[in-house]
Amino acid sequence: MEQAIRKADVLIEALHYIRQFRNRVTVIKLGGSVLEDADTLRDMLLDVVFMETVGMRPVLVHGAGKAIDRAMAQAGLPVRKTRGRRYTDAPTLAIVSDVLQQTAAHLERTIHELGGRAVRLHGGSLQALYGQRSFVRDEQGMAVDLGFVGEVTRVDRDVIERFCHAGVIPVVPSLALDPQGQWLNVNADTAAAAIAAALQAEKLVFVTDTPGILRDVHDPESLIPTLDSEQCRQLVQAGVIASGMIPKIEACLESLQAGVRKIHIIDGRVKHSLLLEIYTDRGVGTEIVSSAGVQARGH
Questions:
Q1: Is residue 296 part of a domain?
Q2: pLDDT at 97 exceeding the cut of 80
């Protein structure tokens, strides 16, 4: 009986959040090892199906970096990156496109197996992301041409919202189409941030291989539960937020400035971390709010 009561207490705790976030969009960027481990991915997608079932409107955005690296190695192609961005020539783009479409199809299929409904938004009338070629600067400040690499300039909000309203989970691979009809490889973090901003999402969740933002990267117990925009900038300046986390934080801050209410960074390797972060008082990762007074966790 006590165990049953505890389960009921969990549901009651979640009820407040279910009501609060009903009919609100949450953009979830899947990354890291969650895409590599079948059981972990299935658990994460079960969380996503639960969210849609209780009235939230999840949107999935994904890359497939490790799978792309493996496919390129099998094809005998070198992996070239500048400041974390993959150089993408025509042969590389063909592999990137193929792997991303396979990943999207797998996500769609698994969601269906779990009792949900999903649709891949890629190509034709279902294309969601449009962009233009972009450049990065090297350590000397010189512009570097990365080939068919781009940034998102427009999100087809209507096509995404149409499926969300119908109870179908959109699955968006990180490929954009330029005005000439050329596919572009875009960073999945910035793609997710662009989608969240376009939809004025309630939440943007980055599913990663880390517990969140740590004061000491070697100490998981140093997790920072809540930060605002200004505190994030201070941690970047202090070197606490460094290397690959910096582009993610930059995407977070741009999203907040564009109207997204909260950003969450969670560890996808923790079972049901998505539900724990959204539907419990304490959460399990780091949430980032604007400096303009959005309430922090637990209030």
A1: no
A2: yes
